[in-house]
Amino acid sequence: MSSILSAFHFCRAFSHQRMSLAAYCVLCWRRIGTLIPPPKTTTYWRDIRNIIKFTGSLILGGSLFLTYEVLALKKSLTLDTQVVEREKMKSYIYVNTVSLDKRENYGITYQARKELHKAVRKVLATSAKILRDPFADTFSTVDVEDHECATWLLLRKSQSGDRAARLQAVQEMSETHHWHDYQYRIIAQACDLRTLIGLARSKESDLRFFLPPPPLPSLKEDSSIEEELRQLLASLPQTELDACIQYFTSLALSESSQSLAAQKGGLWCFGGNGLPYAESFGEVPSATVEMFCLEALVKHSEISTHCDKIEANGGLQLLQRLYQLHKDCPKIQRNIMRIIGNMALNEHLHSTIVRSGWVSILAEAMKSHRIMEASHAARTLANLDRETMQEKYQDGVYVLHPQYRTSQPIKADVLFIHGLMGAAFKTWRQQDSEQVLTEKILEDEARYTTCWPKTWLARDCPALRIISVEYDTSLSDWRTRCPVERKSIAFRSNELLRKLRAAGVGDRPVIWVSHSMGGLLVKKMLLEASKKPEMSTLINNTRGIIFYSVPHHGSHLAEYSVNIRYLLFPSLEVKELSKDSPALKTLQDDFLEFAKDKNFQVLNFVETLPTYIGSMIKLHVVPVESADLGIGDLIPVDVDHLNICKPKKKDAFLYQRTLQFICETLAKDLEN
């Protein structure tokens, strides 16, 4: 039995050895086989596999690198809005710090990252601008280099040395309405004087571009605004002023409000404007005394050296306090605007006016629905804007259109000159349909306009610059305390001529539109300009004149005033309107010959109804024969003297005939 088992184990071991030997032989054969060079096809595919492996690794690594850089860039461009909301009201701005070590700018890696960042930013900027995607908000808040967009790119562009680029940047800012609040405040804090004024004169600008005025200094102890206003007036020189202004300046300084009411009751005439003081046992309202001082300051501000004194003595801040205090008194606000507008004629004061916070006040006033308020602000901002304006608008010269910066080319000027007791705005309002107009009607320009040249004519003829002129007039010197007499038509014409030339009148084709005594001023101005070689452009560019009830041959008003002298003491202006006035006859004869020689186009309107002066006097101010210049059409209209220049509505004959004359007279100029 044991022998049998031994044989079995022997055979089994021998069998295993045979199998191991066979396997060993196969392995050796395979190793020997590898020493033989493979065929060429095997080498070709192996190289392809190696190239694919290398390229794939490179693409994968590059993709990961690009993904990392884009995510890192997006993270760096993302602003914590909660932090901004907490910090936006402060007077400083947070910006990302950048190393100033130039050694960090060396190296291939740094340059590669920089170029990559530039490319990605351009892609993001383009997509944000075209698609308005979410990158637009975050990307527009970063300040690095000139390849960045939105807020900081526009800021940089607005300070470019290229004027066209600056103007385009301001326009783009004003047309931006999708920014967050903090982005507008960044512009407000970081922009320069030119940009800020440009935004204020851009129609679509958001008011968030303008920071609130800085805090005003506290009033002195035991002092009032009225007292400080008087101290400011007292600090100004009493030189270079006419006798009438010196008189009232002295009066405003020497008399208290109580003594003014008690001793000087009645109608006070100041520069042609009446200041009513009611005799009573109470005090005169402080606003009345403040108005008295402001009228004097308006005249002082027409003198450059006095403007410097007003600024040096804190006048800008005091006037701003007074402006905010009397928001319910438009007349006080308008006189303050007149002072600031006069100061803005002096370019060396521009930075001070801006720093004092007046631009934000003016920008808000520009958007007012009140035409007078908006026009006063427009005049001041135009005087501040030396980027797009060469003209300067002196006191009494108001641009009704265009009041904002515009790309519309201006091809001609139309000037409106009011008459006796008129004004730059109220003379040219729509005819009152009711005795008392509600505020709702006043605000609705479709139903009623307080100045049809601005509302109607500007829309019908947008290529015109429309200017309205204001000057002081008075029917009577009754109870006047001023020791000097009124100014003559000749004096006023020279004064207005100087102001209009400063505003650039005469550089373009001109049409004059005048009412009553304003027509006499136009005639006198043109005759005076014809005698001065430097005024030749004004004569050559005058295309036509519209006269609304102008007393070319005199007015019954002067005769009536003389006959009832005990009721109405005629002013010098009224005296010059008498039919037997030699000056009036000479003016008519000279101008008629001059107008025929220059071939001026003329249109005359005349009233046919009498006018009520007060509640008892009824008078036909300008008869038909007096309104006949001798050339041009003479059109009678069934209205009185006050309403001859006030159309009832836009499609009324009075306005449509005026519009037709302007368009026909300027047809060639508007086409060019």
Automatic annotation (TrEMBL):
It comes from Callorhinus ursinus (Northern fur seal). Its main location: endoplasmic reticulum. GO terms for biological process: phospholipid biosynthetic process. GO terms for cellular component: endoplasmic reticulum; mitochondrial membrane. The gene is SERAC1. Keywords: Endoplasmic reticulum, Lipid biosynthesis, Lipid metabolism, Membrane, Mitochondrion, Phospholipid biosynthesis, Phospholipid metabolism, Transmembrane, Transmembrane helix. InterPro entries: AB_hydrolase_fold, ARM-like, ARM-type_fold, SERAC1. Facilitates the transport of serine from the cytosol to the mitochondria by interacting with and stabilizing Sideroflexin-1 (SFXN1), a mitochondrial serine transporter, playing a fundamental role in the one-carbon cycle responsible for the synthesis of nucleotides needed for mitochondrial DNA replication. Plays an important role in the phosphatidylglycerol (PG) remodeling that is essential for both mitochondrial function and intracellular cholesterol trafficking. Belongs to the SERAC1 family. The keyword Signal does not apply. This is Protein SERAC1.
